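Appendix B, record 7
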Amino acid sequence: MKKARAPRHHRILSEPIAELSHGTNLAQEPAVSDNDTMRISACIVCRNEADRLGPCLASVVWADEIVVMDLSSTDRSAAIAKEYGAHVVTRPPGPIVELVRNDVAAAARGEWILVLDPDERVSPGLAKVLPQLTRRAELDAVVIPRMNFDLGYPPSNRLQRYEPQLRMYRRANVAWPLTPNALPHVADERLHRLPERDELVIIHDRNRTIPEALDRIVRYAPLQAQSMIDHGEVFAAGKMLIAISAAIYRHFLVGQAWKDGVPGMLRAALLVGFKFYVWAAFWQLSGGRRTEADDRLLRRLGLVLQAMRQISLIGAISYKHTKRLLGR
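Structure tokens (predicted):
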């Protein structure tokens, strides 16, 4: 019987890394500091993630320390973390992980913090590169490409295959923002951006099922909408239409969703759906008012759509009659 071969993306992610970008071997770059006391603390926040925490922890056993903040899980999450030698800190549950990122970092001892979610894991090549980067005294943070698997399939387009994420940083110089889906701000000259290569990614099993994807949308969208209000943004139908149209263009057209078949189309639809829910929640949290300005804009849009519909009908009728005249 022929031995089954691993899927291509798993074989790629298991290959050792030889070089970084532009043919430069990172191990040969002069280190500004060779301080051997530098340590990487892998920090993970979880709640009821026993079914996928193990692979995440296994991918960072090379780190000097693993810290898991368990948000009062009712499953074996804390026990699994201890089995991997992690330092476990318990906290009450919260709606989003950003609210406790700084707390879990404060519980760590390392100079560098590597941030991971339970549904993420470090590729073998990335595990070899990150410790070398901690010796670069001119750096405060590392931007790592993240490969987002949805419904069990990896994306082919770089938009989701190599999503840039600031995920390792010097604890003394960087703090995590409390805004949902926000990343710390670090000056460009203090950042190192890893190249877009399969062996240098964080692998993200983002949405394994549709219910899981919808749960993520329900949890994050209202919080992001509230953050927009807190930052002084004012709802307007025009801004909503622009934002949703931009999401459709980005995820369906730029992301070439059709190239990944049904999973690709569903991925794009879920991402656009998240943006739609954010703006729906923004409208409701802003008071849910119907304004004359919004009504006027939407009526104009309706006229444009009606005109487009009439043009398409005329085109269909003309095509039908042309075929009849040509006897086809």
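Remarks on this record: Residues 1-35 have pLDDT under 50 and may be disordered. The radius of gyration is 24 Å.
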